[in-house]
């Protein structure tokens, strides 16, 4: 699967005079850099990498959303340690549109921070919320889905629209959205959510996969900025009060001091738990595009064509009796393998990972050991 960032699109969102709203894209670009260690680090998480893509993941996301909102209505929310690299990778984006979180506080405070900033420049702002590190194709199908979601929120401004992805395998690592079963649904129909289901066991995931009622929750949302703030006020009143104190400081010299005071005191909670699972105004659109959350090194094998031996290689590599491996390195350091099977091998200038391909949780356990041995500089 390759990104199609060269694709162009002429959409109604580029002609503000044709519609009663302005669409703003908010790219959530935090991240700890753990699952793609050692290529990703705390100061260089996976959105800054190319993983089965022509550009880095954040660059692909920015380019995909550009026809929808233009440079002047695209925003990135990220952490202080990632600010400079974000600016380097997105030179077209005005620095004032990179919103800095003083600490990690999950997605509800992130969305709230973006909402108050958008309302300061556009009281009628519609928000498209997208993660920085997913692979989506084709862009044209993504644009069509967003257009359908925006039209829905224009007609029903109290609605919060989620994108769901039809499961193609029984994933136990994703949350699921349950919707009304209807064989007559078109791809971009938007219908109420019945329930949210947490990460299931294998048997339950298989049942979800066989049913037309269940979709993966892919973390892409469309709603009015004022609507999501009203929902935060209803379900997380303390967070809302802190956001309102922040809102008063926008554009003043007090902004950073108030941000540093209020933001760390907000509950660290996802927008799903904070609002979506509590609200009766949530609808879902089945995504008509291909989607991958690029959640582990296994994504390389999904996004790139394996060779005849089943190896997925992004490196200078020579192998003998090497099968089913995922190998990542540079173009000037040779990785040579003999008699190995089903390994993940990742080589960087300062660290090398060799792991069982089928034990994705091992990397997390490994990093805990590295941290415990006073090797923090390698994280």
Could you walk me through the main structural features you see in this protein, from its secondary elements to its overall organization?
This protein has 379 residues and is of the alpha/beta class. It has 2 domains: 12-292, Alpha-Beta Complex (Spore Coat Polysaccharide Biosynthesis Protein SpsA, Chain A); 298-378, no CATH class. It is 31% helix and 25% strand. The chain has 11 helices and 17 strands. It has helices at 57-69, 83-89, 107-121, 139-155, 202-210, 225-235, 237-249, 255-262, 271-276, 298-303, 362-372; strands at 22-28, 74-79, 98-101, 125-131, 135-137, 160-165, 176-179, 190-197, 214-224, 282-286, 290-292, 312-314, 316-323, 326-328, 334-341, 343-347, 352-356. The strands form 4 sheets. The protein has a 5-stranded mixed barrel with strand order 6-9-7-8-10. A 4-stranded mixed sheet has the order 12-14-16-17. β16 and β17 form a beta hairpin. α1 crosses α4 (139-155), α3 packs parallel to α7 (237-249) and α7 runs antiparallel to α8. It is globular and about 60 Å long. It starts with 21 loop residues before the first strand and ends in a 7-residue tail after the last helix.
Indicate the topology.
Layout: E1 22-28, H1 57-69, E2 74-79, H2 83-89, E3 98-101, H3 107-121, E4 125-131, E5 135-137, H4 139-155, E6 160-165, E7 176-179, E8 190-197, H5 202-210, E9 214-224, H6 225-235, H7 237-249, H8 255-262, H9 271-276, E10 282-286, E11 290-292, H10 298-303, E12 312-314, E13 316-323, E14 326-328, E15 334-341, E16 343-347, E17 352-356, H11 362-372
Parallel strand pairs: 1-2, 1-4, 2-3, 6-10, 12-14, 13-15, 14-16
Antiparallel strand pairs: 4-9, 5-11, 6-9, 7-8, 7-9, 8-10, 16-17
